[in-house]
Amino acid sequence: MHRDSRLREFISTHDWITCYFLPSYAPDLNPVEGIRSLLRRSSQANTAFTDPDHLMSALRHGLRQIQYRSNLIDGCLAETGLTLTTSRQQRQ
User: Fold this and answer.
1) Which terminus of the chain is more solvent-facing, meaning fewer CB atoms within 10 Å of its CB: N or C?
2) pLDDT digits (tens, 9 = 90+) for 33-74
3) Do 56 and 11 touch, CB atoms closer than 8 A?
4) pLDDT tens-digit map of 7-30
5) Residues 1, 19: contact at Cβ < 8 Å?
6) Long-range pairs for 28-37 at CB < 8 Å and ≥24 separation?
7) CB 60 within 8 A of CB 43
8) pTM listed for this prediction
């Protein structure tokens, strides 16, 4: 269980939360690692950033490109072997 007592209490009082025990370092179980990989191969590839603002601008642009391609996000989740248990909101 999580170490912070407040979080443990919150989890125990909300039956819709399922807590899983993961290793302390498990990048292969983290879909964010897939997103980082996509960014490194696209918006960050072969770029010497001039300052932090330049880096932030490139990251925002890269994330915007990924945001509208749900197949990329789904692929990052699929790589982990994990699945969503709730349905994604449909666009209207």
Assistant:
1) C
2) 888 898 988 888 888 999 999 999 999 998 998 888 888 888
3) no
4) 888 988 998 888 777 777 888 888
5) yes
6) 28/79, 28/80, 29/80, 29/81, 29/82, 30/80, 31/73, 31/76, 31/77, 31/79, 31/80, 31/82, 32/76, 33/76, 34/75, 34/76, 34/77, 34/79, 34/80, 35/63, 35/66, 35/73, 35/76
7) no
8) 0.58
